[in-house]
Amino acid sequence: MTPSIVDPNTEIDYEVKSTWYQLIEAGKQKNYEQLLNVSMDTISACNKRMLLRQFIKNCSSELLSELFFNRIRDTSKILVQNNEVISSYYSAYFLSKLKVYGETFTIKRVQVDLKDTEPYIVAFDFVETRNGFKFFSCDVYGGPQCCR
Q: What's the rounded Cα separation, in Å, for the pair 55 and 141?
């Protein structure tokens, strides 16, 4: 992946952050229908692929913790990045959902730095589909193992 820092004032970045905030609110409320509206049907989380319901059951409480909600109040702890990835690493079904792709496509990553004293990052990945940006992947770096 080739990351680049995103300008948070562009319209696309606004759309990604808007989708991200909808995802967070839906996760907080455990609102499956709202999560379904902003997510792909299969989520990759912590090196596992799972259906959205399984992701909610196994991962949402670990990812959307009190620490997480306290940290996102400080927008300097939130970073949006563009990651260019190779299309052939993804299934034809997944690619068929995307708005556009060629040899590569762009993943929008929203990550939150959860601690100042040690590395602990939660990252959420989004792709642009024909129906807007959708959540499809997340990971945790430096914190407890997620989605146990």
A: 18
CB atoms closer than 10 angstroms to residue 81: 18
20 contacts: CB under 8 Å, gap ≥ 6: 110, 124, 126, 135
Prediction pTM value? 0.86
Instruction: Measure the CA–CA gap between 78 and 110, rounded to whole angstroms.
Output: 7
Over residues 101-136, the pLDDT tens digits come to: 999 999 999 999 988 888 888 899 999 999 999 999
Residue 116: both structure tokens together: 């100042």
CA dist 117 → 61, 88, 114, 121 (Å): 23, 38, 9, 12
